[in-house]
Amino acid sequence: PIKKPLVVVTRTLPDVVETRMRELFDTRLNDGDRPMSQAELVEAVKTADVLVPTVTDRIDAAVLSQAGPNLRLIANFGNGVDNIDVNAANNRGITVTNTPGVLTEDTADMTMALILAVPRRIAEGIKILENNEWHGWSPTWMLGRRIWGKRLGIVGMGRIGQAVARRAKAFGMSIHYHNRRRVPAKIEDTLEATYWESLDQMLARMDVISVHCPHTPATYHLLSARRLKLMKPEAYLVNTARGEVIDEAALTRMVEAGELAGAGLDVFEHEPAVNPKLLKSERVLLLPHMGSATIEGRIDMGEKVIINIRTFMDGHRPPDRVLPSML
Ligand code: 8YV
């Protein structure tokens, strides 16, 4: 019989995905759902034909320098590949794939939930009831801001950015975006979206900013202290992309000082650590990186990983190969 590839999976995946992988591959699953240590990762890359990491595994140049001759594919369980040094991998002849498309709608839903929940103070309202602090209705109490008729500025108009735009448009927001490239006119027309070549100018004019670009060297602290200060003090900031895109310390200072109305954050610069000052603020709604966390989405991601591995093993170009031009 043909030898099955040795596939090392770093984290626990949904049962159906693990079962299918065991049928198809010589699958080695991590025992216990916790991130692999650096030593375990090194051990994995030394022996595996295929590595399936997640966002919590840092596959940097140092780890890759230990890779054994069999390692040909890193099939990331996730869309963002900022956990992997893709250039270092490619230089060693290792292909990298991700799982785009299948988590677009779920992430956009979570983003829309934050766009609604932060200006309407939903988290604060829940806390008031839980703390038995509701003393009755009042016409001027717990007032939020309406999002209908307001301007949403999307930073990064890829699949997820566009899915957020569709939702926000249905909620009566006007759509604005900044992106490296302008999206095709047909998409702009459908979304009635306005393109801003200057991120600075867009930031200064929006009521809500939502971040949807990947974390790359070019987008690290894209929303720097200087840029955050361009936002209107009554504006809100939402991030379901990557914490590193925003200068979190600067954002925290601004939220504390009341220089921004509020923020909805699903991702952080030093996960799983969250700035304690952010946690204390009433102006923010914080979630523990749940943007794509649906049962269906995780199964879809697993299927994508399996398709990428099988296609690669059959000697073809895997559908979700990450190219350096995408970084
Ligand atoms: C996952 C994500 O939590 O895909 C991404 O980029 O941030 C999330 O969907 C993570 O990637 C799993 O590896």
UniProtKB/TrEMBL annotation:
Residues 8-322 form the D-isomer specific 2-hydroxyacid dehydrogenase catalytic domain. InterPro entries: D-isomer_2-hydroxyacid_DH, D-isomer_2_OHA_DH_cat_dom, D-isomer_DH_CS1, D-isomer_DH_NAD-bd, NAD(P)-bd_dom_sf. The keyword Transmembrane does not apply. Keywords: NAD, Oxidoreductase. Residues 112-291 form the D-isomer specific 2-hydroxyacid dehydrogenase NAD-binding domain. PROSITE patterns: D_2_HYDROXYACID_DH_1. One of its GO terms (cellular component) is cytosol. Coiled coil: none annotated. One of its GO terms (molecular function) is NAD binding. It comes from the Bacteria. Gene3D superfamilies: NAD(P)-binding Rossmann-like Domain (3.40.50.720). Belongs to the D-isomer specific 2-hydroxyacid dehydrogenase family. PANTHER family: 2-HYDROXYACID DEHYDROGENASE-RELATED, GLYOXYLATE_HYDROXYPYRUVATE REDUCTASE B. This is Glyoxylate reductase. It comes from Breoghania corrubedonensis.
